[in-house]
UniProtKB/TrEMBL annotation:
Classification via Pfam families: RimK (PF08443)
Ranges of residues in domain ATP-grasp: 91-343
UniProt feature coiled coil, ranges: 484-518
Organism domain of life: Bacteria
Name of the protein described by the UniProt record: D-alanine-D-alanine ligase-like ATP-grasp enzyme
Alphabetically ordered keywords of this record: ATP-binding, Coiled coil, Nucleotide-binding
InterPro entries listed in its UniProt record: ATP-grasp, ATP-grasp_RimK-type, ATP_grasp_subdomain_1
Secretion signal span: none
Matching SUPFAM superfamilies: Glutathione synthetase ATP-binding domain-like (SSF56059)
Organism lineage string: Bacteria, Bacillati, Bacillota, Bacilli, Bacillales
The keyword Coiled coil belongs to this UniProt entry's keyword annotation: yes
Amino acid sequence: MNQKKFFNDYSAIQKQLPAQAKGLPLITYSITLEAWRRGIEVSFFSAAAKNRQSTYYTLKNAGIEYNFRLSFGGLMEKAARKIVNDKAETKKYLKAADISVPEGRSIQLNNNLEEIVEYAASIGFPVVAKPLDARNATGVFTDLKNREALEGALKILREDLNCGEVIVEQYVKGEDTRVYVIEDEVIAAYIRRPANVIGDGRKNIEELIKEKNEIRQNNPHLKKFNIEIDDKLLSYLKDNSLSLTSVPEDGERVYLSKSTLHPDGCETVDVTDELSDKMKALAVEALKAIPGMKVSGIDIIVDRSEDKGYILELNGAPNICGHIYPMEGEPKDVPKALIDYHFPETADKTVDNHEYFTFDLDTVSKTLKSGAVKRVTLPALPEGKLASMKIAVSGYTEKNISDIHRTAVRLQLGGKIIRKANKKLIVKVAGKKDKVKEFSKIILRKIGPGAEVIEENRWYGAYPYYFKAPSIDKSKETSQAMKLRSENIKLKESVSKLKDIEKENQRLLKEIDELKSSRSWKVTKPLRSVKSRLIN
């Protein structure tokens, strides 16, 4: 039995996402898509952030506008984010509000190794070591059980991550929980579960890891990080009397790590409804402890058996995608909550069938990176009576495709062209009802008997807006293009051979120079001179 039945399936959604909507840009896409579908004006612009260009966006409606980067911006005060970016400063505010935090302090790393080790011993091992300004769990080392483990972590922090100041704090056991809070309300919560597989009684662990990675590739949030078979994983299995060839029982969950970091293959499991009222209240209190903090992803270690929690940190720009695409549990619509909060006048606004439209994030990103424009504003979606249509085309020509695309763009319709086998096309189109009707008349007239309407007003899948340009038909590649490719390959081979000959020439010249400077060459100079005269 495949593990798929235990995990959420996002394969249909994954197919609709732009290529650029992965990793952190998925946060931007998820929020702007929600706003755009409501009729809020969305524009993107590029600006410098931490010595590199980053994409920002503006949301505007009814004279109110907010700038965002990823999930940060809007009503969030910059001073609040400055506080939470400093872990030591955050802890001061939390302690002042009498909120439970792990015992710990910040220490300069350079030349203070012994001081750090002594402090860790004073609060008791195991401990956690992390950079003062740690983001996205970079450089966070947990459950360091002794001096040797701590020294190893500090060496990496100093030499590999160039970290100047670290936080050392007690390691608290419990579930690593992220709670997303907007002012007084807990919107969503998930736990980070370490990398794991679920057995079927037949496959071994190595086969199950391969199967699990295929499942993760259909999760937009997790596809960036596969479960890697490395020394850490093998060591963990060995410590638990397991190996890659072990065969778990049917339905048995086998953990492959204790790490709850995404690069180590962890996954998110929604626990919003399971989180106790006490823990939800703790998250809200933590948010209120930071002046100007309106929205945050709050990390809490939760001990469910005692209904007790410790606040680890608050995030001003949390990655919300773990809530939207949990591996297990019910997905939570965090973008909706965020837009509701900033634009409450749109909270109840629904436009029939707007949820089927998507915008071209790939083109937006490429345009901004090119520097051709400073800002890109998305076209507003059509309102009023909308319609969708599917047209089948047989025996098409490339001119037919060009006509279809040009007509759809002119009429401001969404949709795409799908190439099928046996010279067939499927044209999906949607937009204002009168424009869709006009489109069908034009296309049916231009193409003739080869085109027919096969569906009307059956909404499903995604309709890129504006109309998505058709892909190149690689099967129709010209013989000339193939010839040029072949000649290009031959040219590269010739260049490679010339480089090899040049290297050999350089080697021989070097040998000649060495020979001329040798003692034997100097001693035999008179003999070479006599030989030269005899030959001449």
